[in-house]
Amino acid sequence: MDIPICAGVSYIEPMQLSLSTPLRLLVRQALRQFTDPYRRYRHAKLIHASRVAIGILASIALTTGIHLPHGEWASITLLVVIGGLQHHGNIRKKAAERALGTLIGASVGLALILLEAWLHLPLLTYLLMAIACGVGGYYAIGKGGYIALLSAITLVIVAGHGDAEISDGLWRSADVLIGIAIALLFSFALPLYATYSWRYKLSDSLRDCARLYARIVGGLPLNDEEHQKILTRQGAMLVQLRSLMPSVAKEISVPSTELEAVQRGLRSIVGMLEMLSTSRLRDIDDVRRARVRQALSGEDRRIRELLIGMARALKFGTLTRLEPLPPLHPPPPPPEAVSAEVERYVWVTAQLLEQIDSLRLSLAQLSHKWNI
Q: What is the pLDDT of residues 274-303, one digit of tens each?
């Protein structure tokens, strides 16, 4: 029996759709491993190692393919620029400094080669080279130190001990610049932005703040291993976030002062939590303690909601979690006189909530920049 086929419709299309849909899903899932920022952050070391290895292969292939003399200096330069730097902002900065240092060092090195070829006074050449390297060492300690140090290194690479041929000096200078170009090219391949590390580390820190606050409100002991572990992580995280700020500022084009406001807000929250740890209503009976906590139940919920909301916004890019929440009604005053410890606990809780909301506002104002 013939099956009627409508015009323009083929029975192969459903079969193709059923076969291609799993393939499309497989391709999409494979691409997510490379395009998803969080996955790139988790596998940053593997991605960076692969990028360096492929960059070295490209450098070798290019310099040997065109028979470039002293091509190994291109590979050495590539390692200097990106070997220990996985973040895109750092690579761009170091490459720019490397290029400037190369131009300065190569110019001085070529001048020394010409001077030696003209005067044939090796002792004078050695003395001038030592003075130039000494000047580089002088400025290597302080601002712009990387440029000064690389200038001295490039000077020695290009000039040798002053007895190198001018052609060798020119080729070595060209090799170094080629290495910089390759390093910059590969820095754009699956870039590992410092902004990713900053976002996810800040998210983890805020989640730890939420855990610490839950332990304080729940009356868990302060001297146990878990509590101390969270406090230690917070201290280490503040240091790591501080080290990422210069690269983040360059990547997302924001003033460092705005990132400093976020850092200062997180530091204040951690400090308030430590203050709250010492204001645990230990000197009052269970009934009054329960009344105080009941009166502050709205603040408690708001603090947890804000901390977790900011953490999720940073990790998943759900910026709706940074929107302002409706105002809280002030808690009714307790009917009986309160002790100094209760007043301190209430005051610290109010200050903590204020600091957390201020951090939420800072992140919301910067969200169009860091949500890359």
A: 888 777 666 666 677 777 777 788 889 999
Tokens of 72: 């190994």
Pick from 270, 233, 234, 263: nearest CA to 246: 263
Q: How far is CA 244 from the centre of its chain?
A: 5
> Could you tell me the fold of the domain covering 194-370?
Methane Monooxygenase Hydroxylase; Chain G, domain 1 (1.20.58)
List of residues 6+ apart from 68 with CB closer than 8 A: 62, 74, 171, 174, 175, 178
Please give the Cα distance from 296 to 90 (Å, whole number). Answer: 46
3-state secondary structure of 192: strand
**Which string of b and e fits 110-134 if b means at least 16 CB within 10 Å?**
bbbbebbeeeeeeeebeebbeebbe
Cβ neighbours, 10 Å, residue 330: 10
Structure tokens at 288: 């009054």
Q: At what angle do helices 72-82 and 88-119 cross, to 10 degrees?
A: 140
Distances in whole angstroms, Cα of residue 361 to Cα of each of 57, 166, 211, 252? 47, 60, 22, 18
- How many other β-carbons are positioned within 10 Å of the β-carbon of residue 302? 18
Q: Which residue has the tokens 């990422």?
A: 244
Q: Sorting pLDDT into bands at 50, 70 and 90, what band is 11?
A: very low
Residue 258 is classified by DSSP as H
**Helices first, then strands: H and E counts in the chain:** 14, 0
Q: Which residue is listed with tokens 């079969």? A: 15
pLDDT tens digit sequence for 209-218:
999 998 888 7
Tell me the two tokens of residue 103.
Answer: 């131009």
Give pLDDT tens digits for 298-328.
Answer: 889 999 999 999 999 999 888 999 998 887 7
In order of 27, 125, 134, 138, 161, the CA distances from 149 in angstroms are 47, 20, 10, 9, 17
Q: What is the CA radius of gyration of the chain?
A: 30
CB-CB neighbours of 180 under 10 Å: 22
Bridge partner residues of 87 (DSSP):
192
